[in-house]
């Protein structure tokens, strides 16, 4: 074996390339999301397993990656011969030998992310985890960093897994539907009581907790004081789609605002009672995600104007007449990423009669000089936007990389000539989608650019008089263009116009040939001089 491979640091660095990149992150948001992601590809696990069986030097670093995340308690419990199924219930029967307990502890110490679904606990004795934790004298996974736990019926609490090393906890309340078995129907009171016990355990045992997330809430969180979680950086609370309740109280929001390190918050604003003074304490808030009606979203954003927010994600349940106020209040000067879209679980009317003015939606964001992502996906909304407004925002966003404006086009729609605004001012733009009047002929060709735009999606009627002329304009403005998609409007499926794309490819090849010929012809002239 090469001497370099005997260095554990070098070996762990090499093996880390077989790990899921999201699991290597120390970001709280990634820790919260990775517990709900799919498992790594089988070939990656097979490679790590082969490394485990290769030699002793490879064994420990490979096992650390293989056991870093587990999606069920059964792989660990099957290490114990006493774990078996009796009368339909999984139990620990009899005494556990010292050797088996040491082997279990040897593997358990490698687990960093643990996910447990309610279906995994349905037929399990609720004292299995408690007994195992007592025998170990520590939490079952003493080095656990991220925990994802689904509360169902019967309610089994994750107390034996709560360790001092926890950084992110996600609690999912199982949905109760008519199709679910009767044994899985939820007792709301038991769930709220269980959530309260979990919060008390976390406050007492996990001082380093950075992320706390709740999903599927059917009642208000049983917590009014978040000050025990002094290290909290990310907080989320979303209600069940069919529940018409407030997910958190004004007192909870006020206590969250007093946390010095809280930088990310996502809440559902339905029936949320708040005062402007409640949200004022937020000083370190950098990212916010809100779900609700535009009226409530606009009020909350107005109350957060003193915060240095650089990331906003808004999800609209039902539209109202406060859309323009919501956009205006969301234009924070340090904003880097802004996204707006409908709630997939609610039905938004296919068309809204009110005509929205693009200048009131777009122009407030001209003060966002560092904006990199601007995605607005509001199907059914009729928005009037002109070339002048496109030029204004393009000149104000020199760092923009992705710009999507998915709305129903009004009579005043930007022309294909407005693309020159992005070609001259937004040199970092790689993805562009907006409604365009593609039939308007451009009288003056734009200057030749070196823009890196690769993907263009245009919404509008595509009947150009000259396909070659349209391709020439696009290649002149965006020489690295790879794909052009067109659609009649935002409701129709996007399609790739093969004729246009083939014409663009032909012109790009011609430009390459002409450039090579000019280069070759200039070399003899340079040699003669």
TrEMBL record:
Superkingdom to which the source organism belongs: Eukaryota
InterPro entries reported for this sequence: LRR_dom_sf (IPR032675)
Protein name from the UniProt record: F-box domain-containing protein
Organism expressing this protein natively: Heliocybe sulcata
């Amino acid at each position: 074996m090469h001497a370099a491979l005997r260095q554990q640091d070098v070996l762990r660095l090499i093996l880390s390339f077989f790990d899921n990149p999201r699991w290597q992150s120390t970001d709280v948001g990634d820790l919260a999301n990775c517990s709900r992601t799919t498992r790594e590809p089988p070939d990656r696990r097979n490679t790590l397993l082969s490394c485990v069986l290769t030699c002793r030097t490879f064994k420990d670093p490979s096992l650390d990656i293989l056991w870093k995340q587990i999606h069920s308690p059964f792989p660990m419990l099957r290490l114990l011969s006493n774990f078996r199924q009796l009368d339909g219930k999984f139990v620990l029967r009899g005494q556990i030998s010292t050797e088996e307990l040491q082997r279990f502890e040897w593997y358990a110490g490698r687990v960093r992310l643990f996910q447990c679904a309610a279906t995994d606990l349905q037929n399990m004795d609720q004292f299995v985890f408690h007994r195992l934790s007592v025998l170990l004298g520590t939490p079952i996974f003493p080095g656990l960093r991220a925990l994802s736990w689904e509360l169902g019926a019967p309610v089994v609490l994750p107390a034996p897994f709560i360790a001092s090393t926890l950084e992110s906890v996600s609690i999912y309340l199982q949905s109760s539907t008519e199709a679910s078995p009767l044994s899985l129907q939820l007792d709301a009171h038991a769930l709220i009581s269980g959530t309260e016990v979990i919060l008390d355990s976390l406050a007492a045992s996990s001082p380093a907790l950075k992320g706390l997330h709740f999903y599927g809430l059917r009642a208000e969180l049983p917590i009014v004081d978040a000050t025990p979680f002094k290290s909290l950086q990310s907080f989320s609370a979303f209600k069940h789609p069919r529940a018409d309740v407030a997910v958190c109280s004004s007192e909870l929001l006020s206590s969250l605002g007093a946390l010095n390190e809280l930088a990310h918050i996502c809440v559902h604003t339905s029936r949320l009672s708040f005062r402007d003074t409640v949200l004022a304490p937020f000083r370190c808030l950098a990212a916010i995600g809100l779900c609700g009606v535009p009226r409530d979203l606009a009020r909350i954003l107005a109350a957060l104007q003193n915060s240095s927010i650089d990331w906003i994600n808004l999800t609209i349940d039902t539209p109202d007449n406060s859309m323009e106020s919501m956009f205006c209040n969301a234009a924070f000067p340090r904003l880097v990423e802004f996204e707006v879209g409908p709630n997939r679980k609610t039905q938004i009317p296919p068309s809204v009669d009110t005509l929205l003015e693009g200048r009131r939606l777009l122009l407030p964001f001209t003060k966002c000089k560092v904006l990199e992502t601007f995605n607005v996906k509001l199907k059914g909304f009729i928005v009037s936007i002109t070339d002048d407004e496109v030029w204004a925002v393009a000149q104000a966003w020199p760092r923009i990389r992705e710009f999507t404006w998915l709305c129903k086009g009004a009579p005043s729609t930007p022309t294909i000539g407005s693309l020159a605004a992005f070609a001259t001012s937004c040199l970092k733009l790689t993805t562009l989608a907006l409604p365009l009047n593609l039939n308007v002929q451009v009288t003056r060709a734009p200057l030749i650019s070196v823009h890196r735009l690769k993907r263009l999606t245009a919404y509008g009627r595509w009947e150009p008089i000259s396909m070659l002329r349209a391709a020439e304009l696009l290649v002149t403005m965006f020489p690295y263009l790879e794909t052009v998609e067109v659609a009649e409007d935002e409701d129709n499926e996007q399609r790739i116009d093969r004729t246009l794309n083939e014409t663009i490819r032909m012109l790009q090849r011609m430009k390459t040939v002409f450039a090579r010929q000019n280069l070759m012809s200039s070399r003899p002239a340079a040699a003669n001089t």
